[in-house]
Write a structure and sequence with these properties.
CATH architecture: 3-Layer(aba) Sandwich
Strand content: 15-25%
Largest sheet: 5 strands, mixed, barrel
Shape: globular
CATH topology: Rossmann fold
Structural class: alpha/beta
Number of helices: 8
Helix content: 25-40%
CATH superfamily: Nucleoside phosphorylase domain
Order of helices and strands: HEHEEEHHEEHEHEHEH
Number of strands: 9
Bound molecules: hypoxanthine
CATH class: Alpha Beta
């Protein structure tokens, strides 16, 4: 069975489980929740829970704090498919396995995804618990998930599924603008940052963080970038939101730990949920009335 067929089978399975949620009026928006950021899923009304273990070919998360299920339902009246937990390259999954769930979201017919993550803050002035919208990324993972033959059938929207494609606006400027507006209404500023992805699982050394700052990164983390690349390959619009869970290596007096990362996520997840309740209906409205130029038929 080809990778594409596996993706199609997983998507068909999900469709059968959340069929009432996926007619034409169904979810256009997917949300991936990072470490400690699960509360957004609690805000989903009339949820249908689908553990990853039940979905054909779906990789299983091995990290504590990534519970590993799909939560489909409505967020402030807007249909959404939420992935609570993700798999990482450092768990031993290959790049195509890591991005399998994103392929399935694409195959479900979604138009936009919000990718959240826990990240170390590199920029001076960031504080723990701060939310940052990604303006761009630097792929330092040492691979690209699209390595290998191109599969044009992943072009679920016009002008996508291409061998070579543009990444100048990997993170949608118009979705970022909506997010900034929603955050300001919630009473906090949403700065923009540049996320550098490392393979992990060890945290960085102070010298690496100084190097990454020189390269233009303001955040560092171990996820998201492969998902963004694959989402863009399929023609989905991407909004990236990092939660600064710790100051990056060398910037804080205490050593880094996963518990610290997880705890900081816990403190901010409710703010994130309120932000999304405000934001997601607006993204849906934008997608309905103004499809992205590149995804217009
Ligand atoms: N480095 C890498 N990944 C991370 C960090 C960090 O400091 N914090 C949360 N994820």
């Amino acid at each position: 069975m080809t990778y594409f067929d596996q993706v199609s089978e997983a998507a068909a399975f999900l469709h059968s489980r959340i069929g009432s949620l996926t007619p034409k009026i169904g979810p256009k928006i997917g949300i991936v929740l990072g470490s400690g950021l699960g509360a957004v899923a609690d805000a989903v009304s009339n949820p249908v829970f689908i553990p990853y273990a039940e979905i054909p070919h779906f990789p299983q998360s091995t990290v504590v704090g990534h519970s590993g299920r799909i939560v489909a339902g409505h967020l402030a009246g807007t249909p959404v498919v939420v992935m609570q937990g993700r798999v990482h390259f450092y768990e031993g999954y290959s790049p195509v396995q890591v991005t399998f769930p994103m392929r399935v979201l694409g195959a479900l017919g979604l138009q936009a995804v919000i990718l959240t993550n826990a990240a170390g803050g590199i920029q001076q002035g960031y504080h723990i618990g701060q939310l940052i919208a990604l303006a761009d990324h630097i792929n330092f993972m040492g691979f690209n998930p699209l390595n290998g033959p191109n599969e044009p059938r992943f072009g679920f929207h016009p002008n996508s599924g291409l061998r070579f494609f543009d990444m100048t606006e990997a993170y949608s400027a118009r979705l970022r603008a909506l997010a900034r507006q929603a955050a300001s209404e919630e009473g906090f500023p949403l700065e923009e940052g540049v996320y550098l992805a490392v393979p992990g699982p060890s945290f960085e050394t102070p010298a690496e963080i100084r190097a990454f700052r020189t390269l233009g990164a303001t955040l560092v983390g171990m996820s998201t970038v492969p998902e963004t690349i694959v989402a863009r390959h399929m023609g989905l619009e991407v909004l990236g939101i990092s939660c600064v869970t710790n100051l990056a290596s060398g910037l804080s007096a205490t050593p880094l730990s996963h518990e610290e990362v997880f705890e900081a996520g816990r403190q901010v997840e409710h703010r994130l949920a309120r932000l999304f309740e405000r934001l997601v209906p607006r993204i849906a409205a934008l997608l309905n009335f103004e499809p992205a130029l590149e995804t217009q038929p």
